[in-house]
């Protein structure tokens, strides 16, 4: 299973439990603060025997991406800069950070046959699909 845009790991924990000890889950989260929380949540649920956390963004090509990391609503972070509409409705600030971008096809040998893919990456889905 893949969890692309894992955030703090709510769905990663559920998927890891569904996978069971014989299954595998790769959880991708590029936001530096969220990636740490994701790792911790998988740890406290005893799921590292079947999960791998990847602190990177799923993208078309490998490399480095400009990432707009929300400082208040962490789940609203994106590779796309927030627009005027967002900024009118949210009291939020963004830090522009560089994150690693990975192409999921480059890990196909690790994944093998996938049974489930969850993607929630704030407008970056198209670019992730191009890398699949």
UniProtKB/TrEMBL annotation:
Pfam families reported for this sequence: Methyltransf_21
Domain (Methyltransferase FkbM) ranges: 3-131
Signal peptide interval: none
Keyword annotations of the record: Methyltransferase, Transferase
Biological processes, Gene Ontology terms: methylation
Methyltransferase keyword on record: yes
InterPro entries linked: FkbM_mtfrase (IPR006342), SAM-dependent_MTase (IPR052514), SAM-dependent_MTases_sf (IPR029063)
GO molecular function: methyltransferase activity
Record's protein name: FkbM family methyltransferase
Organism: Cohnella suwonensis
